[in-house]
Write a structure and sequence with these properties.
This protein has one domain: TIM Barrel (Alpha-Beta Barrel). An eight-stranded parallel barrel has the order 1-2-3-4-5-6-7-8, surrounded by eight helices. It is α/β, with parallel strands linked by helices and 302 residues long. The two termini are 28 Å apart. The longest helix is centred in the first third of the chain and has 21 residues. 49% of the residues lie in helices and 14% in strands. Helix 1 packs across helix 12, helix 7 packs parallel to helix 8 and helix 8 runs parallel beside helix 9. The protein contains twelve helices and eight strands. Bound molecules: flavin-adenine dinucleotide. Flavin-adenine dinucleotide (FAD) binds next to strand 4, strand 5, strand 7 and helix 11.
Length: 302
């Protein structure tokens, strides 16, 4: 990334929310469930599956966590009603993990029961490293409690991930493998892009070797190529590719056209700001987009 882009990434938190909203629009279905339904229906019609995510992280009050759980109920009902090819992803902090872990567990179980009655799979997103142990512990407890249709996410950037794969192998978990979006210290996370890539490949090999159904979540062409070599001859029970809404759409379509299962992550909701900042910080062209939007606002009639 160029120096100017780095500067804009650092300044993003002070960019007006209206600008962030407009520039991040391709990454979000919209603010309402109706918006998500429309986007997912379009994907379903194109032979692409979806993961619906209700935006909302680090809620600070129990009633906010309850509201997110209710929003998941509505989303699950809509997926079933519309016959959409979709499952859902949840964030534990959105279900109250930082408020009260017992509340979070009971709300997560409520979502799981609701989903399971409709035959819909639930994946627990992985958040920053303050949540890794809690997330893996809750996952194990949920599996021990008989919840089968639930999966987790592991981050190749974390030094611990190969050990986590070995420790979880007895459960043969369904795992989404990604690089990991959160900034973590070098004591616990690899920092160099090439080292993270190598870790991703090693984790992918370990997951496939352990017979875990693996969702390969990356837009990185080098990793897509390595992954395609590895999944040759495997069926949709063994793997799928996953991408984020609005990122490398053409490459995603190519993968689907070549017969791979592609699932697109479709976030929606009123709490779009934090998610948007993360997506913009990853966009190599962010500086240009933000600058164009700001100039568009400042120069009337442009
Ligand atoms: C379906 C899915 C679910 C995820 N879930 C989690 C999770 O639970 N926890 C977590 O920590 N992380 C999650 N992530 C994020 C992930 O960890 C990475 O931060 C993110 O995918 C970027 O890494 P990359 O492998 O795509 O490689 P990158 O090197 O970041 O991207 C490769 C290329 O993709 C394009 N690109 C990437 N991002 C953008 C963008 N925003 N705008 C435009 N172009 C872009 C660029 O051309 C870039 O060069 C998820 C990612 C996906 C795809």
């Amino acid at each position: 990334m160029k120096v100017f882009d780095h500067a804009v990434v650092r300044l993003l938190p002070v960019v007006p929310r209206g600008v962030v909203r407009r520039v991040a629009a391709p990454y979000i279905a919209g603010e309402t469930l109706g918006d998500a339904r429309r986007v997912v229906a379009g994907l379903t019609a194109a032979g692409i599956e979806a993961t619906v995510d209700v935006l909302g992280e680090e809620v600070t009050r129990p009633d906010e966590a309850e509201a997110i759980a209710r929003a998941y109920h509505d989303a699950l009902e809509a997926i079933e009603h519309d016959g959409l090819a979709a499952n859902v992803s949840v964030k534990l902090t959105a279900l109250g993990a930082k408020v009260d872990m017992a509340l979070c567990r009971s709300l997560t179980e409520r979502v799981l029961r609701d989903a399971s009655e409709r035959g819909i799979f639930v994946r627990i997103d992985m958040e920053d490293s303050s949540m890794t142990d809690d997330t893996l512990e809750l996952y194990r407890a949920l599996r021990a409690g008989g919840h089968g249709e639930v999966g987790i996410v592991l981050q190749a950037a974390l030094r611990r991930t190969l050990d986590d794969i070995a420790a979880l192998a007895d459960l043969r978990p369904s795992v989404r493998l990604c690089k990991g979006i959160y900034l973590e210290p070098s004591s616990i996370a690899f920092q160099e892009p090439d080292v993270i890539r190598k870790s991703f490949v090693a984790c992918l090999d370990a997951l496939l070797e352990a017979g875990c159904r693996t969702a390969i979540a990356t837009h990185d062409e080098w990793l897509l190529e390595r992954s395609l070599e590895r999944v040759q001859g495997l069926g949709p029970d063994a793997y799928e590719f996953q991408m984020l809404l609005g990122v490398r759409i053409d490459r995603g379509r190519e993968l689907a056209a070549a017969g791979h299962l592609l699932r697109v992550y479709v976030p929606y909701g009123k709490r779009w700001y934090e998610y948007s900042l993360r997506r913009l910080q990853e966009n190599p062209k962010v500086a240009g987009y933000v600058a164009r939007d700001m100039v568009g606002r400042l120069v009337p009639g442009r």
